Amino acid sequence: MSNPKEEKHKSIVKRLELKLKVSAYEKQQVTEETSSLRIQLLKTSLLQDEIPDLKRSLNEVKFENKKLESSLHILSGDNEELKAEKILSMQEIPDTQRAIAELGDCRHGKVSLEEKLFRLEGDLTARKAIGARDAELKMSLPG
Questions:
Q1: How many Cα atoms within 13 Å fall on the side-chain side of residue 44?
Q2: DSSP one-letter code for 143
Q3: What is the maximum span of the chain, computed from C-alpha positions, in angstroms?
Q4: Coil, helix or strand for 142?
Q5: pLDDT tens profile 70-128
Q6: What is the DSSP letter of 1?
Q7: H/E segment holding residue 127
Q8: How far is CA 62 from the centre of its chain?
Q9: 98 to 43, 102, 110: CA distances (angstroms)
């Protein structure tokens, strides 16, 4: 058997070997965490470099949005004006249709009157001719 001193030394060595393994494991963990933190730091740095570009893009989009809102406001006003004009036009259609119908009636009446005038002129011409003939006859009769 081993002597107690030797056993004590072995026990101390085993403990120290175990501590060494734990320390090596902890060192590996710290190394991995450090590496991960370095990667995150690089990513953060890259992202910070993008911030001015993103802010500029955001400002451009905001400006474009304001222009579009202004255009929408103008177009909405134009649309309301056109709606009002359409309503007025729709209200004028019956009046226009009535005027067209009256114009048609007037044209028909004009044609009828022209025909009647033509007949009356014909009748007048015929009466004049008859009157002239009657006058000739009266003159040719011994009287």
A1: 6
A2: -
A3: 197
A4: coil
A5: 999 999 999 999 999 999 998 888 888 898 999 898 999 999 999 999 999 999 999 99
A6: -
A7: helix 4-140
A8: 19
A9: 79, 6, 18
Q: Positive or negative CA dihedral for 51, 57, 61, 64?
A: positive
**How far, rounded to the nearest angstrom, does the alpha carbon of residue 50 sit from its chain's CA centroid?**
33
Measure the CA–CA gap between 60 and 54, rounded to whole angstroms.
10
**Which tokens belong to 1?**
């058997």
| Amino acid identity for residue 78 in this structure | D
| Locus of tokens 């929408």 | 72
Q: How far is Cα 49 from Cα 45, in angstroms, rounded to an integer?
A: 6
Half-sphere CA count of 57, side-chain side, radius 13 A = 5
Which residue shows structure tokens 């990513």?
Answer: 43
Q: For residue 15, which amino acid is it?
A: R
Helix (H) or strand (E) run with residue 138 in it: helix 4-140
The CA distance from 27 to 33, in Å, is 10
Amino acid 102 reads E
Amino acid at the residue 34:
T
